[in-house]
Amino acid sequence: MPKDFLQDVRSHYDAIVIGSGLGGLTAANVLAREGRSVLLLEQHYKLGGLATWFKRPGGHIFDISLHGFPQGMVKSCRRYWTSEIADSIVQLHGVRFDNPMFSLTTSFDRKDFTRLLIDRFGIEPAKVEEFFNTARGMNFYDDQSMTTGQLFEKYFPGRGDVVRLLMEPITYANGSTLEDPAITYGIVFSNFMSKGVFTFEGGTDHLVKSMEKEMRRNGVDIRINCDVERILVERGVVRGVELAGKKITADAVISNSNLRSTIFSLTGAEYFDPAFIDEAKAVRLNNSSTQVYMALKEGDEIDRNTGDLLFCSTAPEFRTDLLLSRDITSRTFSFYYPDIRPDGKQRYLIVSSTNAHYDDWNRLSPEEYEASKRDLIETTLESLEQYVPNCRERIAHIEAATPRTFEHYTKHVSGASFGTKFEGLAVSRTLPEQVRGLYHAGSCGIIMSGWLGTMNYGVIVANDVLNYLNTQVPAPTPAVLN
Ligand SMILES: Cc1cc2nc3c(=O)[nH]c(=O)nc-3n(C[C@H](O)[C@H](O)[C@H](O)COP(=O)(O)OP(=O)(O)OC[C@H]3O[C@@H](n4cnc5c(N)ncnc54)[C@H](O)[C@@H]3O)c2cc1C
Is 347 in the pocket of ligand 1 (CB under 6 A)? Predict the structure, then answer.
């Protein structure tokens, strides 16, 4: 008989969280810490969503999305998780760029970018200072009419090389383009580039296991292999969820699932105002990614000077369309040294990431898809050869993931790596105005995506839910759900 993953589940909770990405996990933990009863439902057999890892024979553990995050993670982890988690965050020191315009290594913070812009790129110190202050001073309520491209043109007219230095990592990081509002760049840039890039010592597996332990300590009822089929709504109020033939009621539901799936598949367009639905339909998804995972043979090593993060490109200039093209010219290599998992086996790993369009992969026949993956692996090795000589002979394991892989494991529409574009945030935030008690806390709007963005968004939404629950006289559970 198949295992019942909902065995002994209660019939009612204060809040149900659908999905265990970093946004869902953090929202569940914050609510439970405040004494609320919380049910966390994850469709996959592992928690973490895109913050995940996988193991391969030989002691290799690959991280999917642990390439780098801003220093703000330390504060957020300390406040909303544990000191142990916060204390495991360490800085990446070697961030490299290698492209036809320039090759350099940076500590990726404001001081070093200032040095580079003045000494290497010949920009006036006052201009650099003014640019950083403008980027740093931007906030969500600022005028949103200026685009990132216009912001660069204002400070560094005609300087494609400067734009590349300042923009390429952000495009890799969240798929944002020169056409996106400058505010999105300003916020991400000052978060990322003011104090460097950080990672989690112990790997994603250690992080997620620590989070699970903390959630259990706070009383979250965690259920994996639980695919929520429907969010139940009655007379404009959320009532709970339905899955595996069961209805479970709750005063509030937080969906960490993709924003579009939350509205159109899990809830249903009929529960929202037509104007809201039009707005939701207009929300653009962010792009997806491909990755190639490589492990060096046991005993082999990568020279530490290779760096931790390498933004490499053969494209003569920076163009977002080139970064997204299936004809890959630009890749980010993450090099993982044994100190990422000090307690693990002494393994050296490399993950190559590229931004990608879902349709470039989805339209392929099974044979074409396999051939395209082989080509991705082959071209990645060609590119890696100049940074890790003789890599073909040195690699013990290699495999590729595509937008279809990300869609398969997380149910993200079109395998979106960073949820939705900027306009998704307004739709996500106004969800509870449409259906009382229904919230969304997952990657959206560039700012609320990535490890730090989604974690912080989980906190914001958990606080909204706490306010709602505290002021709400819970409605009697309707008979229809019993
Ligand atoms: C290749 C790649 C590299 C990345 N690199 C970085 C990086 O270096 N730095 C960084 O900060 N960010 C990075 N990111 C982005 C970052 O990983 C994500 O923004 C973040 O982890 C998303 O968190 P989330 O809370 O939105 O949830 P997600 O991770 O999207 O998780 C959503 C969860 O909901 C579950 N779910 C969906 N539908 C249902 C349902 N019906 N029932 C039950 N469960 C459901 C899914 O299974 C999943 O577990 C990367 C992403 C990718 C794909």
Answer: no
Q: Which of 40, 256, 290 to mutate to test the pocket of ligand 1 (most atoms within 8 A of CB)?
A: 256
Q: Does domain 53-92+287-410 have CATH number 3.40.1000?
A: no
CA distance 61 to 417: 21
What is the atom index within ligand 1 of the atom nearest the CA of 24? 25
For residue 95, CA distances in Å to 73, 137, 379, 416 come to 19, 25, 22, 25
Look at residue 209 and give its three-state secondary structure: helix
> What is the pTM (predicted TM-score) of this model?
0.94
Going from the C-alpha of 203 to that of each of 35, 61, 82, 85, 344, the distances in angstroms are 30, 9, 16, 11, 10
Per-residue pLDDT, averaged over 206-224, amounts to: 98
Q: In which band, very low, low, confident or very high, does the pLDDT at 141 lie, cut at 50, 70 and 90?
A: low
Assigned superfamily of 12-45+224-284+418-481? FAD/NAD(P)-binding domain (3.50.50.60)
For ligand 1, the distance from its centroid to the CA atom of residue 123, given in whole angstroms, is 38
Question: Where does CATH 3.30.519 sit in the chain?
Answer: 53-92+287-410
pLDDT tens, 68-88? 999 999 999 999 999 999 999
Return d(Cα 118, Cα 123) in angstroms, integer: 5
- In the chain, residues under CATH classification 3.50.50.60 are 12-45+224-284+418-481
Q: Lowest-pLDDT range, 82-96, 224-238, 408-422? A: 408-422
Q: Which atom of ligand 1 is least distant from the CA of 229?
A: 41
CA–CA gap between residue 371 and residue 378 (Å, rounded): 10
Distance 21 CA to ligand 1 centre (A): 5
In sequence order, the β-bridge partners of residue 401 are 291
